[in-house]
Amino acid sequence: MLIRTQTILNEGVEQGLHLGAQVYVSIDGKPFGELAIGESRPGVAMTADSLSLWLSSTKPIAAVAIMQLVERGKLALDDRVAEHIPEFAAGGKQDVTIRHLLTHTAGFRWVDVGGPETPWEEIVARICAAKLERDWPLGLRAGYHPMTSWFILGELVGRTSGKHFRDYVRSEIFLPLGMNDSWIGMPAERFLDYGDRIAIMSELDKPDRPPYRYSLLAGATACFPGANGYGPARELARIYEMLLGQGEYNGTRILQASSVEQMTVRQRQGMYDETFKHVMDWGLGLILNSARYGADTVPYGYGPYASDNAFGHSGSQSSVAFGDPEQRLAIAAMMNGMPGEGKHQRRVRAVCAAIYEDLGLSN
């Protein structure tokens, strides 16, 4: 039972950190505990079947898609992106590789990609036209790319598979894993059909507490490969159950074990991240546990008890999802309130700690 975890999350509701939350925990691919507390939106109870906004916890899906295409011989990690997207070479980006994108060492972080209404083709064109940041030696400087590189990864998926990114991840990853209510850019009719099952993410650090833009129709139905995944916590955790299973879940193989090993090994180690302002380690599209650089200061970590080889990703001021190979744990926790960075970092450390305490793994 996730008793301590539930207490922490209920306290968060009382403190105005979130309206509600979902948590799912499994051990060896078998459910251990699932929580749904508070409200998914004002006046509507959060349930385990509510669809939560993943924000940047979405990013590993693109990495899985890229690794599938590497296995199929469509891509190689050290391919120059411009080999597949020639216009990307503009602005000094001709030598950027797919590996640089997946490790956030490429150096084209800050491009205005527009809002949810901006067409995919226009967003890609804006990013392709952007200049490489000054004095950025590829692979030797690190800085988290919140949006840009993930659209380029999505475009690589589209150009090499023949399917738009939203359709590719649905048919090649989500549905084979039984993630039937998971989407990155869901159809408008599905968004409307889900109705109150869609949990609203609120910006609680702003005076009028507005819903975050991806919680609205336009934002949920656009395709932002690194930002607007939607689905229940249990379904996002399935990605980590698959990775912990060396690429296989419940008899369905999504990746080869060698691909999982590449994703979860420290591809980028001991480098200062110029976006997060902290030393952080990265696999391929995954944040590797960086508590060794300061468990109480590293942003978007996995709490004080996670194994050193834990891997995953988090969403801005809202969510965390990761796998812990040593403990065979898959964990996803989604809070539908963005209370500001400081409050969120304290909240997520407390939630992750409580989960391990509930499991008796805090020693």
Question: How does this structure look, described?
Answer:
The protein starts with a helix and ends in a 5-residue tail after the last helix. It has helices at 3-14, 59-71, 98-102, 120-129, 148-161, 165-174, 188-194, 217-221, 233-244, 257-264, 341-358, and strands at residues 20-27, 30-41, 44-45, 52-55, 183-184, 229-231, 248-249, 252-253, 268-273, 278-282, 287-288, 311-315, 319-324, 329-335. The chain has 2 domains: 3-55 and 186-358, Beta-lactamase (3-Layer(aba) Sandwich); 66-161, Methane Monooxygenase Hydroxylase, Chain G, domain 1, CATH 1.20.58. The chain is built from 11 helices and 14 strands. α1 (3-14) packs antiparallel against α11. Helix content is 31%, strand content 18%. The strands form 3 sheets. The protein has a 9-stranded antiparallel β-sheet, with helices on both faces. The protein is an alpha+beta fold and 363 residues long.
Helical residue percent?
25-40%
CATH superfamily of the largest domain: DD-peptidase/beta-lactamase superfamily
Percent strand equals 15-25%
Count of distinct strands: 14
CATH class of the largest domain: Alpha Beta
User: Which architecture of the largest domain does the CATH hierarchy give at level 2?
Assistant: 3-Layer(aba) Sandwich
Question: Globular, elongated, flat, extended or rod-shaped: what is the shape?
Answer: globular
